[in-house]
Amino acid sequence: MIRPNAAKKICFAYFAHSHRPYTPLDSAYAKANILQSFPQASVEIVRLEAGERLMAELEGLLAKDADVYIFVLDNILWSMMFYANAAVLLAREIKKQRPQTLVGFHSYKVTDLIARNMFKGVAELDFCLRGEPEVAMAEFYRRGDFDGVPGFVYRKPDGELQFNPDPGLVENLDDLPSPYLTGALDFYLENGSAQQVFMSTTRGCPFKCHFCSRSVKFSHVRTFSLERVFAELEYLARRQVPAVFMLDDCFIVNRRRFKEFAQGYEAHFAGLDLKRPDLYVMCRPEFLSDELLEFLPQANIVWVQIGLQTISPDSRYLMGSGVTNDDYVRIANKLYQSGINLQLDVIVGLPGDNLEYFKKTFDFAIQLRPSNLQVKQLYRNPNTLFDLHPERYGLETESHRHFFHVPFVTDSNTFSNEEIKQAAQYVIDNRNQGNLPRIKLITEFARFNDFGKASVSA
User: Fold this and answer.
1) Core-most of 72, 153, 250, 445, by most CB within 10 Å?
2) What one-character-per-residue DSSP string does 51-95 give?
3) Same domain, 86 and 211
4) Which CATH number fits the domain that encloses residue 97?
5) Residue 142 is part of which domain span?
6) Which residue among 140, 163, 186 closes a domain?
7) Nearest to residue 118, comparing CAs of 145, 91, 97, 100?
8) Cα–Cα distance measured from residue 343 to residue 199, given in angstroms and rounded to the nearest whole number
9) pTM listed for this prediction
């Protein structure tokens, strides 16, 4: 028992850039699930900004007078890497001023090792929550303590850490109340920030990319019913939300379901005097056949994000990719002809890749006429194949900046640190030549973000 009846008022706090719309979807799912069982519960979601406003944010948090503060370090915007220190500072100050208040972190990326380092580095931390938060938070609210609640790691009165069992996955996603249909996100929709919102039609990814933490944690794909998806889209349309970014790791993972979605989305709105929200989706090239590409306009999809990563044959072989350059050309041409914007993702420093092939990859990506091009240095994500077997690929990483920092890979057997630096410089040197797309670069050597510029349309 941690503290009987402690769960009275809960405050979820998340970090977001001031210039970028960000829907606190994870917190809202947890909030909606708590309120379904406890309608009188007090659950609030608070947006935070790091930097100069941090102390002002602290005053705002303290004014909420919550019994439990949870800093949501989710991985949609990589808050765990970029905002962890800010969360630690706020957690320490809250405990300093309100010693009886419970303070914790939530992230999908928390492993046992990360949890131990987390508690070792932050003496003020009471708990952390791993995995999907909805069921765990509702059970915590019911009990008023963490004892036996799957997903929680917490500090016992004697100072020892208690690792509760893994929370598992919610198999029937429709069992989770909708954060939109229940009104859990109305505060966000009504504050003028909702030019684009996040949604999910599935959870999980069947692909086991060696670098991606999502496939490690959520390899089992689960789906929301299409009836619920259409109801949420209608709810957003009635609130004049113009665009929805689907967070599905692979929006088209089942060909039949996607056809049903495209046809059903059009049919659902046919008798309504409402504008359908535009859809932004992430897809795998393996699923974008010519047949399915024809359904994209019917589904009102206006933007598709695809991982190119590299065109190096050796690197593709290591990752088990059977996609060819011709596949990307076919897909890009079809999207361009349909007036659908394309974002491509490229990774610097993949095992099997090298500087020569990175330059070829970058040049090839430009030839595909994307509206956006994102170039990131390889991260060593916990429990991925690259993380579990670094010696196999000669991987070395930067020093950890804090106890749950996900570090850049700085060297591999085929891509040296100096070559990674040259790759970043190649992007910079070619950034402003000709009619290039908007480019985002994230490396240890340089970073910039052109995504705020006007889109290049077909």
Assistant:
1) 72
2) GGGHHHHHHHHHHT--SEEEEE--TTTTHHHHSHHHHHHHHHHHH
3) no
4) 3.40.50.2300
5) 9-163
6) 163
7) 91
8) 19
9) 0.91
